Amino acid sequence: MVSAVREASRQIPYPLPGAFFLTDPQRTPDPVSVVNTLPNGTGVIYRHFGAADRNEVAKALRAATCRKGIALLIANDPDLAIATKADGVHWPEARAQLARKWQGRFLIQTQSAHSRRAIVAAVCDAVLVSTVFPSNSASAGASMGPVKFRRLVMRTEKTVYALGGVNAETAGRVSGFAGLAAIEGFTCT
Q1: Residue 27, class by beta-carbon neighbours within 10 Å (0-12 exposed, 13-18 middle, 19+ buried)?
Q2: Which of 63, 75, 138, 162 has the greatest CB tally within 10 Å of its CB?
Q3: Intra-chain end-to-end CA distance of the chain, in Å
Q4: What is the total count of domains within the chain?
């Protein structure tokens, strides 16, 4: 993943990182411990899904990402992002239009997209498009593969990240033209 993140970082405009590690309460129960293992050029998207300990975990992630000098985005929770001095917010596709209200308040805003239409309608700094490769995520749809994904990326001027099944084996297939986003790709060796 290190070389793929390095290659992706060359494609992505500042201040966006070349890759994002997405947390998941079930698959990454201790996301803070993962931060120190992330390759340079990797930011963090904290997805708390309403967890009772979200404030504490967000504060711990902010401290860890500050020590490492990497970006932290809070998913779907701009108030928590402000409270923890996060770099930005990641929006789910269904709520991405809310990003307009918060423009100028954060360094970075990203959003999910699951179709060409969602990519075209994107309002954020970058779009995480899924599902690119077969994924272990319960919410993952059928994978589109790197060829179809590349066509989507080439048809937009937006900054795009591949999400879904991105790992050490697959990342190099898209890192030359897109950013990377993964959960297990950063936790499984």
Answers
A1: middle
A2: 162
A3: 10
A4: 1
Model-level pTM?
Answer: 0.95
Residue 68 belongs to domain spanning: 2-186
* CB distance 30 to 24 below 8 Å: no
How buried is 35 (Cβ within 10 angstroms: 0-12 exposed, 13-18 middle, 19+ buried)? buried
- Give CA separation, 81 vs 23, 36, 169, in Å: 15, 21, 33
Q: What is the CATH number of the domain that holds 159?
A: 3.20.20.70
Which contacts (CB < 8 Å, 24+ apart) does range 83-92 have? 83/55, 83/58, 84/55, 84/58, 84/59, 86/46, 86/58, 86/62, 87/15, 87/43, 88/125, 90/20, 90/45, 90/47, 90/128, 91/124
| 147: Cβ contacts below 8 Å, ≥ 6 apart | none
